[in-house]
Design a protein that fits this description.
This protein is one of the nuclear-coded polypeptide chains of cytochrome c oxidase, the terminal oxidase in mitochondrial electron transport. By secondary structure, this protein is mostly helical.
Length: about 60
C-alpha cells in the first residue's frame, strides 16, 4: 500500500442560489399556468351556460309535470 492512489471526491459546496431561484421561478410559473388554465376553463363553461340560457335552450326553472 505504499503507492496509494488519489481518488477525486465531489465536494458538497452547499445549495446553489441561482439554481434554487430558477427552480422556484419555473415551479411558480408552472403552477400559475395550471391555475390560469383552470380559471379559463371555468370561465368558458360559465359563458356557455349563460349563452344557452339567453337563447332559451336551457332553463333554471323546474317544469311542473
Amino acid at each position: 500500500m505504499a503507492a496509494a492512489r488519489k481518488v477525486a471526491h465531489a465536494a458538497y459546496n452547499g445549495p446553489s442560489i441561482i439554481k434554487e431561484i430558477i427552480y422556484g421561478i419555473s415551479l411558480g410559473l408552472g403552477a400559475g399556468l395550471l391555475w390560469k388554465m383552470h380559471h379559463w376553463n371555468n370561465q368558458k363553461r360559465a359563458k356557455e351556460f349563460y349563452d344557452l340560457l339567453e337563447r332559451g335552450e336551457i332553463s333554471v326553472v323546474v317544469e311542473d309535470e
